[in-house]
Design goal:
The complex is a heterodimer of chains A (about 300) and B (about 300). Helices cover about 70% and strands about 0% of the residues of chain A. With about 300 residues, chain A is mainly alpha-helical. In chain A, a hairpin with a 7-residue loop joins strand 1 and strand 2. The longest helix of chain B has about 35 residues. Classes of the chains: A mainly alpha (about 300), B mainly alpha (about 300).
């Protein structure tokens, strides 16, 4: 080995050391935070999920006891899952379609596009707590605006949040208002604007009408944004909390007892930290399964331009 | 200009007989868009109009579209009947720390991820991205127990300190993507001139990244301002509440009497929403670019 090569090698290893040292130095706040506020608590919550721990006593090992209790004895476990899925099945597709529809309207080169975009977007800026309080007032059984408007066309409106049957539709309505024109719509709009104009022109020459252009060009080209919004939509839907907590507290008669509300109540009202951790891990596993299924399915319908 | 000229002209040349249909179609699109705009704004209008009414006028049927008795005093009263000023101060302090922490810490972390080739970098970055999908409930219970052991419950620390550790995964992602668009030549030129790692970050990258930093600052503010679950879990004393938690007080806690307070509730809700709306109008383009960034490479 010549002296020159040796010094080059030395320089290379010095460079490498410098890269490692400085790299880790710069990301150290995140790394520390990840250990303290994410990984550590995750492990702790997994351990807690196998214990009986009502904040006042020391945690006692319970094995699978909490998991068995959730699946067989907890009278609210299955209903709260059912309620959450019911919400998800309605709110996610309507929300996605609604956002896409709004984005498509804005993409029609309407005059004052930015004004309309602002009008649709503003509800998503409203703090969730304020939005929930505002809607509770709008949906007031006797003097609410919604029932007043319904009365104008001869319909006697239900008591909405006070009714077992209508509380859930009311919550869906509230979350649709806050989310339809928000980030999801903006992402769709960016996706629509990213579709190459040549594709539409080529299709027009071939005599394709509006519907076929939408079906065969727009939809495949924006499928990655649909996928992105779908994944985030499902993750969000499984965690609905604030709106339900403020408007109904899970009622009436547990009609809106969302899973997140079930976790919250067990953790911070009953202070049953062990069991609440078990519930949190159920939520996590459900989310994981949904995300994996979606990733698998996405290979069948999501089209990435540029990849084969 | 383009919108008015291209479509109808093309229609005329191709299907002369049906060109008027285009106008009907455009008209329908406008009608539909305007109708939707009105529907989206109606709840805001109702909140504002209710916030200016006296209590008696809130409970009459049919309701009035505009206050018969105009009561701007409601907006004064909310500061008197509850510690609204205190809550505002709390919210402002917490938001200030969150914005500062998220901007600087996320930039530093993003700088590390975008500029250094350290062992395990790509794996760590994937881990960082996946934490964005993690439900809060999985970490919040042990976090609560940890803060309890530290005697941080019923203080603002649990709402402030975590943002100094990492600055938020989405912010790191956004800034890292932005830093990647700045050529390494800039760093190297500065390095040759004797700049160290920190000077390059502070004097080269940060000044060039103002748009991305503005976006992060805005979303950090909104995230903090709107946060409900955190204050709900960590705060007990009324005087320590933040605004979103505080305004629920008008609904749940009886104060002086059983007199209805929905007019105050509406005035408070409008007041809490106002800063976010003003911020949006002041910095609209950063909003849009930030959201579009999040959808990229979904």
């Amino acid at each position: 080995m010549t002296a020159e090569a040796a010094s080059r090698l030395h320089k290379a290893s010095q460079w490498k050391r410098r890269q490692n040292l400085l790299g880790y130095l710069w990301i150290s706040p995140w790394l520390l935070g990840f250990v303290i506020f994410t990984a550590g608590p995750m492990i702790a919550s997994l351990v807690l999920s196998f214990t009986n721990y009502r904040i006042i006593n020391v945690p006692k090992w319970a094995g699978l006891g909490n998991y068995v209790y959730a699946l067989t004895k907890d009278e609210l476990f299955w209903p709260s899952l059912g309620i959450t899925f019911y919400y998800m099945l309605i709110a996610v597709p309507t929300g996605l379609l609604g956002s896409l529809l709004l984005a498509m309207l804005l993409n029609q080169r309407v005059r004052g596009e930015s004004i309309f975009r602002t009008l649709f977007y503003l509800p998503s800026l409203t703090p969730a707590a304020a939005a929930a309080l505002l809607w509770a007032w709008l949906l007031h059984a006797e003097v609410g605006l919604v029932n007043y408007l319904l009365s104008l066309i001869g319909i006697k409106g239900p008591p909405w949040l006070g009714s077992v049957r209508w509380a859930m539709p009311a919550i869906i309505l509230i979350t649709l208002w806050t989310s339809m024109g928000g980030g999801r719509m903006i992402i769709f709009l960016a996706g629509l604007q990213g579709v190459p104009q040549e594709l539409y022109e080529a299709a027009e020459i071939d005599g394709a009408g509006g519907w076929r252009k939408f079906l065969h060009i727009t939809l495949p080209m924006i499928s990655p944004t649909i996928f992105f919004n779908l994944v985030l939509g499902i993750i969000g839907a499984l965690q609905v909390f604030t709106t339900a907590y403020i408007t109904t507290k899970g009622g009436p008669g547990r009609a809106t007892w969302f899973f997140a509300l079930h976790i919250y109540t067990n953790a911070f009202e009953y202070f049953d930290m062990g069991y609440a951790s078990t519930l949190a891990w159920f939520l996590f596993l459900i989310l994981l399964v949904f995300t994996i299924i979606q990733l698998r399915l996405s290979e069948m319908w999501v089209y990435y331009a540029g990849s084969a | 200009m383009e919108a008015t000229s291209t479509l109808p002209v093309r229609a005329v040349t191709r299907h002369e007989r049906w060109y008027w249909l285009r106008y009907v179609g455009r008209g329908l699109i406008y009608a539909f868009t305007i109708a939707l705009g009105i529907i989206f704004m109606l709840p805001f209008f109702w909140a504002v109009t209710s916030a200016f009414k006296p209590p008696w006028e809130l409970y009459i049927f049919p309701p009035t579209w505009f206050p018969r008795e105009f009561r701007p005093g409601n907006f004064v009263q909310i500061w008197q009947v509850v510690p609204f000023a205190r809550w505002t101060l709390n919210s402002v302090i917490i938001a200030f720390f969150n914005v500062v922490a998220e901007v600087f810490v996320a930039s530093a972390v993003a700088y590390g991820f975008s500029r250094y080739r350290f062992a395990g970098r790509d794996v760590l970055f994937v881990i960082l991205l996946s934490t964005m999908m993690l439900p809060a409930y999985i970490t919040i219970i042990p976090a609560f127990l940890m803060y309890r052991a530290l005697h941080w419950i019923d203080t603002h620390l649990p709402l402030i300190v975590p943002s100094f550790f990492g600055g938020g995964a989405f912010n790191v992602f956004l800034l890292r993507q932005f830093f990647m668009t700045i050529p390494m030549d800039f760093d190297e030129a500065a390095y040759v001139d004797g700049a160290n790692s920190f000077t390059i970050f502070w004097k080269v990258l940060m000044p060039l990244s103002k748009p991305a930093i503005s976006t992060v600052a805005i979303f950090a503010f909104l995230g903090s301002w709107n946060n409900f679950l955190g204050p709900l879990i960590f705060l007990n004393t009324t005087s320590k509440f933040t605004l979103p938690l505080g305004i629920t007080y008008f609904r749940v806690a009886p104060m002086d009497s059983s007199e209805p307070r929905d007019h105050l509730l509406m005035a408070a809700s409008v007041t809490v929403t106002l800063p976010a709306v003003i911020l949006f109008f002041a910095a609209q383009r950063y909003f849009i670019s930030g959201i579009v960034m999040s959808g990229l490479k979904g």
